[in-house]
Amino acid sequence: MSKQMRIDFVSDVSCPWCVIGLKSLEQALERVGGDITVDMHFQPFELNPGMGPEGQDIFEHITEKYGSTPAQQDQSREMIRQRGEAVGFTFDMSKRGRIYNTFDAHRLLHWAEGQGRQQALKEKLFEAYFTQGENPGAHDVLLRAAGEVGLDVEAARQVLASNAYADEVRQLEYYWQRAGIRSVPAIVINQRHLISGGQPPEVFEQALRQIAQQDEELEQDEEPAA
Questions:
Q1: Whole-number pLDDT of residue 220
Q2: What per-residue confidence (pLDDT) applies to 216?
């Protein structure tokens, strides 16, 4: 009998380790096969909530935020590229020159969840930013991505043109911050187990199997005696 799991994947569209984490998690889920059935929800987290709409040069931003040297940044980018390649994702570092505000992307993703296309849109936006070097906060990019995953483009346009889902996204961001999430990706399973970071597929697979077993044992212990 398949074990049902809820997974809350807390992440930002502009986070490379979130891409690696998601692709690794997907591979792990393929490995466990029918043993585990997942109900996936993507939760908002903004790495740079104060970023202006024009964005910022990525090298300048990382230097200001982390104090890393150009050589250290190049080393990190190459490691990310290799990790992405290992899980089947292409990071084209030559095209990604700026970091952007992602709030509108999170609003559209929140709406897409109700349309059953949230994960497809999330992955399309990862591709737009990390592979194509596009601005994931730009409305033309968001609308094109929405259409490419089968969402109603006019409905998406209305969401972006309004302030729809802004309060809901802010409330969710606050909820996860209060829950102690300070970095992403944060993968929360069944609302009580946390896996942090872009782990390799085998780490996710082992964790999923262990959590499924632990939760099954817990449920058995909680069952009233006949």
A1: 74
A2: 78
Mean pLDDT per 10-residue run, the chain (226 residues)? 92 98 97 92 97 93 93 95 98 93 98 98 98 97 98 98 98 97 97 96 96 83 59
> What pLDDT score was predicted for residue 224?
57
Alpha carbon 25 to its chain's center: 11
Apex 39 CA angle, 33 and 42, nearest 5: 120
Q: H-type helices in the chain, by residue range?
A: 16-32, 58-66, 70-86, 103-114, 118-126, 139-148, 153-161, 166-178, 201-222
Q: What pLDDT is stored for residue 219 in this prediction? A: 74
Say which residue the tokens 């990862």 belong to.
126
Phi and psi torsions of 193, nearest 5°: -115, 130
Integer distance in angstroms from the first to the last C-alpha of the chain?
A: 22
CA distance 191 to 188: 6
Residue type at 178? R
Q: How many CA atoms lie within 13 A of 153 on its CB side?
A: 10
Q: Measured between alpha carbons, how far is 193 from 99 in angstroms, rounded to an integer?
A: 31
Burial class (CB in 10 A: 0-12, 13-18, 19+), 156: buried
